[in-house]
Each structure stands twice: as C-alpha cells, then as structure tokens.
Amino acid sequence: MGQHPGGVHAHQTTHTKIALQSATRKIIFLAACLMLALVYIGLVADQFLADYFSRKLDLASLQMAARLEPGNADYQYRLGHYFLQTQREPLAAAQFFRSAVALNPYRASYWLELSRTYRRLADIDRQQDALQRAINADPSTPEVAWEAANFYWTVGEKDKALQEFRVVLANDPYLPPAALDRCWRIKPNVDALLRDVVPRNAEVYASFLDFLISRNEPAPAAKVWMQMVQLQHPVETRHVFDYVRYLIDRQEVAQAHQAWQQAAGLADLSAYQPSPENLVVNGDFSLPVLNGGFDWLYEKSSDVVLALDATESHSGHRSLSIAFDSRGIEDVGIRQFIPVEPNTKYEFSAYFKSQGLQGAGGPRFLLEDRFTRTNYFASEELKDADFWKQVGGVFNTGPDTRLLVLRIQRVPPGNAIRGKLWIGDVQLTQRHMAQEQTLAGGQ
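RESULT FIELD:
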C-alpha cells in the first residue's frame, strides 16, 4: 500500500506545536513560581529586618521597623511606648497607640497604655473609654483590672472599683494584700466584702485575715477565719500561728484554743492537739517542734543550744537536749502556752537527766499565769541526775487563770551555768474529783 506523502509531515507539525506549548507553559509556570518565591522572600526579608530593627529600641530603628511592616500593631505600640517613656511626649505617644488599637483592637495591653497616656494628658473621658475597652478585650487580666479599679476609685465609682478589685483578688497571686487594703478603705464592711468582693479562695482569705490582724480588727478577723474553716481548704501554718498569737495577745484564750483545734484539719495539726491525758502538746518531743501556736516556742541564743536528741529518751524515741554555756541567763528559751480552767487542780510531771551541770543553783520547770505572771508551780532544780529522774507536783489555778506558760527558769538568774540537760515526757493533767476521792481513800 502507498503512504500519503503529507501524513508524516502533519503528524510532525502537531507534535512540534504540542512540545512548544508544553515548554512555554513550563517557562510561564517557572516564572510564576520564581515571582512568588521572590515576593515571599521579600515579605520574609521585610519581617526579618523589621524584627531586627524593633529589637534595637532606638527611635530610628523602631521607625524603620514600622515602615517595613506598617500593618504590624506591635511596632506602633513600641513607638508609642518609646515616646511615652523615653521622650516624655504623651501627645505623640497617643497617636501611635491609637494606630496600634486600630490595627489590633483585641490586645488589652494596647488599650491600657492608651488609657495611661490619656491620663497624662488629663483627658479623663478618653482615659475611661480606653480603659473600658481594655476590660472588654480581656476582663480577667489582673493588670488591667488593677488599673481600672484604681481609676474608678479615684473618680468615686466605688462599686465598679470593688468589682475590678475582685478580678485582681481572683487572678493575681501577689496583689491581694494591696487590693484588700484598698477594698477596706472603700468599704470597711467585712460581711459585704466577703459576700460581694472576696473570692472563696483559701489564700485570699488568709491574706484578708493577715490584713485584719494588722489593723487590729478582731471581730472581722473572726468572720474571715470562720470562712476559712468552712471552706476546708489547706491553710499554711504561719497564718494559723499568727492568728493564734494575735488572739493570745488579746487574752482571747478560748477563741485561740478553738482556732487551734479547727486548724487540725486545715494545716495538718492533728498530732499537735492537747488531750485530757496530757494538756502539754508534743510533751515527749516525738514530733518536730513547730515554734508556733500551742506547740513549743523557742528562741535562739548564743548561751543555750536546744536540740532534739534521738540518742537519749525516757520512754519515747527522743528528748530535748539543752546545752548551757552561759555567764548568766534567766530563761532557757523554750516555752509552751497551755489553756486551763480557773479554780482547778492540775498535776504536773516530767523527767530529766543531766550531765556535767556546773554553777550555783540550776534550771527548773515553772508554770505561771501568762498574763499576771502569777507563779503556780516550780519544780526542784534539774541537776545531779545521771539517770532519768521524775519531778512534779499538784497545784490549783487562780479564779481568773485561763492560760499558763510552761518554761524552764534558771535559778539564780545571774550566775554562770555550763553543762547539759535532757527533758522528756512532760505532762500536765487535770485532777478530777473522782481522782481526789480515790487518793483520799488510799490514804
């Protein structure tokens, strides 16, 4: 068969056209990709350069960053901050802050700085408007709430101020003491503040309690304490110690004792509660000494070294060792407050052991009224015992006695004393009528 002479030529022409079109498309596509890449590189380069200049913090660099990225609100904000803080030109700063909030109205910090700038310009209406917009942008930021609260307080809008202080109290771990001080000055009504302003938070309650103690407000402090008790959230022991000490100083012994009992579950103090079997807390020194509340209280001294000693004990696992090296002291430096009943008979006992005690006289246990200093019991001198020896006695409290202090007195106080003393199993119990009748029958 014969082949058409034009058939091959037509096929070749078509193939060539397709190849040319394909090559053109590839060139166009590559050119487009190149252009996009150049645009992207340009954008990235602008962003990189803008970020680089913005970190220099001088005016020329900040202006360059803003020119490279005119749509970046943060660079406008930084320029505003520069003119406000460095140049002290609030009018110029306001212009840049307005640009920042126009570009990004959802950043509370931008509105907050604009509000502060209007404050410097004495433009109260614009200051309030910018502050309200900051609150709308982020109603839970403590910095914004603090600024707003103080502004509203200044202009006399107390309810709005308290509302913003509540935001501060609920969200900031450091500002509650200052916020509570301002709340109290605005409305010194503990019931209203607990109901409307102070959030149900153990740490905020504790700060409020500390504040009221510092202001010597016993009745409001008692109400805050009861809120803490009802909340049943953990409380740091230092707050308990401060409250108990405050009540003792006010001679509110029953209330102090009740607070200590209530704190058993709040501050992990269950093991530090007195019992009918022993009114002395931690009398065998088996627990760490807390130096607060109704546990042992101690003072550090260069004349006496106090330590818990696991190598010596009467019946438990430890004792208190007291090492003397003094030219003259009146008190060893450890004591304990013990709530008692008036006109009641008590029995005291303790064990001691000494080593090398030198000096005229010696230390002795003393029980006296915390407030009147009336002496109810003084033991024999705690010396000349290289084995565990018991001391004790029975005494009656006075008609007004509610709190005793148990301490170790040095007699005579002005003489030198050296050596070592151990004490343990310190006990105080109430003598009941049945015990008295039993003892009388035994005689």
